[in-house]
Every structure is written in structure tokens, then in C-alpha cells.
Amino acid sequence: MPGRYPRISRKKVRTKSITERTHKVRVEDFADLGAAAFLDCLPDQLKASDWKAFCASLASAFRQGLPVIAMVGAHVVKAGCSPVIIDWVRKGALSSVAFNGATAIHDAEIAMWGATSEDVEQGLADGSFGMVEETPGLFAAALSRAEENDLGLGEALGKVLAERKAPNAGSSILCACYEKGVPLSVHVAIGTDTIHQHPALNGAKLGAAAMIDFEIFTAAVAKIIPGSVVLNLGSAVILPEVFLKALTLARNLGHSCNGIIAADFSMIQQYRPTVNVVGRPTRTGGGKGYTFTGHHEILLPLLHRCVGEELSKN
Question: Mean pLDDT across the stretch 2-16?
């Protein structure tokens, strides 16, 4: 007994030859596992195509000496990826580096004591989280240098670390930037960092030094020309917001800052990096935006290696 419901008939379906169809995937786009270079192994599909295109753009910016800005979140340091940034700084590839407050803390602790990052939950239980003596003392000294010499916090930290002959300077982005004269700005939000818990830290000095760093960072953003690259490496909120304001200020003062190549490297895709770094800046003034999702401890060394492959081609 047939069912109660009407059915469509397929007897008069129109067909065409597969040779007439437009295809998005072709065999020549497949991965080539026998290729000598990793980039050449990748298929020409989806994120692999984006990866190859972005690596080529970053290598091109490095090769031409175009502005390349790296905004670095704290997790990048905690995941052991500082050597990627340090190598690019030493090679003169980066025009500017930006930290949030937590990144500066972790990097400075690595420089001075070769270790960082505590067990938050354990310290929270008894009120000892963030209550070390040395780190806020280091920042207080840097803020005094900043006030005395009209410096931003990033440069002041680099100066203090140099004065103290930081034992692990070779593993510190702050130290590398100070040594090479690469502007490193630190962008803080009051109350977000462990050092804000200490009486040694002066809020007025912190705000003044951070405002200088905002002006330094905006000056770096103002130099953006077509083909320049902006990297957001693991900052979910602070640095994408700072970048948007710096870009606005630079354009307000007459700098076009067009043709930005922007890329976000996040463990999960989040609103501010996607919109404030990758989306809006490249839609207002041209350019190209990329998002790459994954663990920094894998993606960033891989990026370093792939860009090196691109640079070795010429």
C-alpha cells in the first residue's frame, strides 16, 4: 500500500557532463608529500592556501624592509615561543613589538630568573597568588626610569634589565628589542596584572608610561604602507583594541595606513582579533586578512620555518 504523502518524480531530471562542471578541487591541488620544502607539501586548498599566501606576504615584507608589527599576548611567552620573535628582532625584520601587561611580566621574569607562571589556583586559596617581591620591584624601578627619562614602559623595562645584566637576556623579547633599538610598547589595563596588587607600584607612573607607549605604538602604526604586516599573536582583547585605536589616531592625523596584511593566531577564534585586526582594518583601506586557529607552540615555530623557506627561495 503506497504512503499517504506526495513524492517528487526524478524521471525528468536534467543532467550535464562532468566536463562542463566548474570544480573547486583538482588533483593537481593535492598534497605533494615528496616535496622537499614543507610549504610545497601542502595542498592548495582552504587554510593551506591561506597559509602559503600569508607566509609569502610576510616573507615579502621582510625582504623589502616594510613595517611589520607583532602584537604578542602572554601565552606566546608561556608556551615557549619567544625565540620566534627574538630571532626576527635580531634580524631587523620587525619594526615594532607590542605587549600587554602580562606579557611584559612573564618576559621580564624569564630574563631575570629564567622561570615564570605560577599555579594560580593554589595561590588563590591562601591569597599568595602574584605576591612575589621581586617582580613588582623590577617594574617599580622601570617606572622610575620612565619618569626620569621620559620613556615608555617597554623601553624602561629594557633599560633596567640591561642595567641589571639580566642572566637570561638571550631568551627575552624585552632585552632583544632594547638591544636592537626596536620599539617595544607595553599596554596595560589597571587591575589586570599581579604587580598591581603591590604597594610598590605607582598607578600614576604606570599610566604615564603606558600613555607614552601608546604614542610610540601609534607612531609605528602610522608608518604602515601597502604590503605591511600586522600580527596578532595570542591577545584576545587588549592589543586588538589598542591597535584599532592606534590605527584610528594615525588615520585621523593624515596617515592612510592602507594595504595592511593582517593575521590573527589564536587558540580559538574570538571577536576582537577577528574584527579589530583582521576585518575592519583591511576592509577600510584595502589589504588582506587571515585567521589561523591552533596552539601557539606549534603554529609559531611552523610559521618561522615556513617564512624561512620562502626567504630562501630568493
Answer: 93
Specify the pLDDT at position 314. Answer: 64
Position 123 scores a pLDDT of 82
Asked, for residue 43, whether it belongs to a domain, the answer is: no
107: domain CATH number is: 3.40.50.10690
Question: Contact, 98 vs 233, CB < 8 A?
Answer: no
Please report whether residue 22 resides in a domain: no
pLDDT at 117: 85
Q: Is the pLDDT of residue 149 over 70?
A: yes
Global pTM reads 0.94
pLDDT of residue 147: 98
Tell me what pLDDT residue 129 has: 76
As for how many domains the chain has, the answer is 1
Q: Return the sign of the alpha-carbon dihedral for residues 279, 283, 285, 288.
A: positive
Q: Is residue 291 part of a domain?
A: yes
What pLDDT does 224 receive? Answer: 98
Residues of the domain holding 219:
48-122+169-187+213-312
